[in-house]
Each structure stands twice: as C-alpha cells, then as structure tokens.
Design goal:
alpha/beta; Rossmann fold; about 40% helix; about 15% strand
C-alpha cells in the first residue's frame, strides 16, 4: 500500500520507506528485488542506496504500475509485469539463481484505492472489479454473480473476518436474484446491500468503520489470490536468498501479518507443529485459476503447512511499526507492520 512517488507524492506516501530500505540493503553491489513496485517509492530509495555494481529487479502485477515505471532510465534497474510466484522464472531468464534482498509491500496502493474505475473502494462509484491485474482472472462482480451463498459467506468470514458473513451473503444472493444480470455493476450498489444487511443485524453503525470494509477486503483478497501468492513467495524467498540476504515484508492486515510472522518463526526454528503455519481454515479456500465461477476450490490446503520445525534457515531481525509522525502525515500507515528476516 502507498508505494508512491512522483508528482502526486504529497497525496501518496510510501510507508516505512527508510526503515524498509535500511533493513534490506546491506551491500551496495547487491542484487535486490522489489516485489511490489507500485509507484516506485521503495525502488527509488533502493537505487539511491546501491552503487554502480548493484542491480534492482522490480515487479508488479498491475499494468498501470508497470506503465508508470516505464519511463525510468537506469542501467541498474529493470521493471517487469509479473506476479510474486513467477520470480524464479524471471531470475532464470536473467541468468540469476540468488538474490541479496527481497522487499514486499503488500496490500493495495493509493492509486488503486483512489481510482474509482478500479473498483477497490466503496467510497467511490465505479465498476466492481478489484483485480490488481485486470488482464487476468475473474472480477469481483463476475465471482459474485455465480458464487453460492455458502461460498460467499465462507469468503467473507475467512478473508474479511466478518462476523455478519452469513447475513451479508444472504442479502447478496437476494439482490442478485432481484436484479439478475444487472446485479452489482458498481461498488456503491454492493456497499449499499452490505450496509443494509449489517445495519439490520447490528442496529447501529460501528464507530469509525464503514460496514462494507470487511466485505470489500475479503473480495479483494479472494479475487487476487493474495494469501496464496504471499505463501508462494515466502517459500521461494527462503530458497532464493543468499546467506546473509534479507527478506522485508510490509503488511497491512492481520491475515497477512500472521502468515509472515508464523513463516519467519518456523524458518527460524522457533515454531512448533501446532503453530507452524496459517492453515486453510484460517486463510479460506481460494478461487484458483482453474476453479469454476460457481465454486471455490473444494480442497482444504494448508498455505504454510504445519510441521515440525526444520533446521533454521532464517534469523528473525525484528518487527518495525510506523512512528507517530508518519501516521499523522499518512493515516493509511497506521496498520502497517514491517517484519525483517535474514537468510542463515
């Protein structure tokens, strides 16, 4: 979130910029990967830190982010349109088999949130899309039009931690039946249905939180397979990092942070069988690339499999939170958590 630089920097601020780059870049001639380029805030800071012999590969699944960075001219820098899980292939194509650092700034960037046409936010009226990469997969609306009431409730409960998931799912299915193919064309339409369902259940609004917040979070995570992608890149990172290389992850909600925390604990040799990973019961069933529109994947798979702690491959460096000044200047930073680990 908030991976932004350039003319609109006053509106979009990169979260934990100095802290993340300080933790990541230990060698000025290292090879680093920015897994979430966004608007280039962290990438620009990494380039400012490395020397002539250093290299930075930046990736982003959002074509708009990649277009934003296309004008960058630096022989040490390359930006490609890709997902986390494609990193091994990207490295192989460039004759690389190891990296000195990987930075992941998870969540949604400010341009994605603020552009109503992307459909991420209930605060603007736009098409109900929510895909970080609009060239791939189902939109949130397409998924909602075909998903069962049970699957909708499950997604809201597991990805959004929404306690009114059943009531909201019932209202969504009822709204879909009334409107048919015209149902849920806009974010405002879905937000209104959610607000009505939650309002009837709760009686009065929850202070400081829009009733659609958790529903929109859940659908965004599901549509973009965010937890599956995170699990993939964490597993890859521990094999791709050179000894002494750093992994730095900035997360913005509890599901992501829990996965990162448990992964680092397990790979540091500190996790037990019981808490070794986030299971599918916590993370939910995914709408995989081959899944039908009507159903989520039926298998309960463990995103980070629970197992006896293996020999330590990582060393936990610590957790960093934004300071009061950063949160005051950028309220979207208030939920950010940076976790850092080093390859043993």
């Amino acid at each position: 979130m908030n991976r932004d630089e350039g003319p609109d920097a006053a509106r979009h601020r990169t979260v934990l910029l100095d802290e993340a780059v300080d933790a990541l870049v230990l060698h000025d001639d290292g090879f680093y990967v920015d897994g979430t380029f966004g608007r280039g805030g962290h990438s620009a800071a990494i380039l400012a830190r490395i020397g002539a012999g250093g290299r930075l590969l930046a990736i982003d699944r959002d074509p708009e982010a990649v277009a934003h960075g296309a004008a960058w001219r630096d022989e040490r820098f390359e930006l490609v349109h890709a997902r986390f899980s494609e990193l091994p292939g990207l490295l192989e194509a460039r004759g690389r088999d190891a990296i000195d650092g990987l930075l992941l700034d998870l969540g949604v960037s400010s341009p994605q949130l603020d552009d109503a046409a992307r459909g991420f936010s209930f605060r603007g009226d736009g098409p109900l899309d929510m895909r970080m990469d609009p060239t791939r997969g189902l939109s949130a609306r397409q998924w909602l039009l075909d998903a069962s009431e049970q699957d909708i409730a499950h997604a809201l409960r597991t990805y959004g931690e929404e306690r009114f998931a059943g009531r909201i799912a019932k209202a969504i299915v009822a709204g879909r039946a009334r409107a048919g193919e015209d149902a849920f064309r806009t974010t405002i339409e879905l937000a209104a249905v959610v607000a009505g369902a939650v309002g009837r259940a709760r009686g009065r609004p929850e202070p400081g939180k829009d009733p659609a917040t958790r529903t929109f979070q859940a659908l965004r995570i599901l549509v973009n397979q965010e937890l599956e992608e995170l699990a993939d890149i964490l597993g890859l990172a521990v094999t791709l990092l050179r000894p002494g290389g750093r992994l730095a992850v900035i997360s913005f909600h509890s599901l992501e942070d829990r996965m990162v925390k448990q992964f680092i604990a397990r790979e540091s040799g500190r996790a037990s069988h019981a808490d070794g990973g986030a299971t599918a019961a916590e993370a939910g069933r995914s709408a995989s690339a081959g899944a039908s529109r009507r159903h989520l994947s039926t298998g309960l798979r463990s995103l980070l499999p629970a197992q006896d702690a293996p020999p330590a491959r990582l060393r936990s460096i610590g957790r960093i939170l934004p300071g009061q000044a950063e949160v005051a200047a950028n309220p979207r930073a208030r939920s950010a958590v940076l976790r850092v680990a080093e390859r043993a």
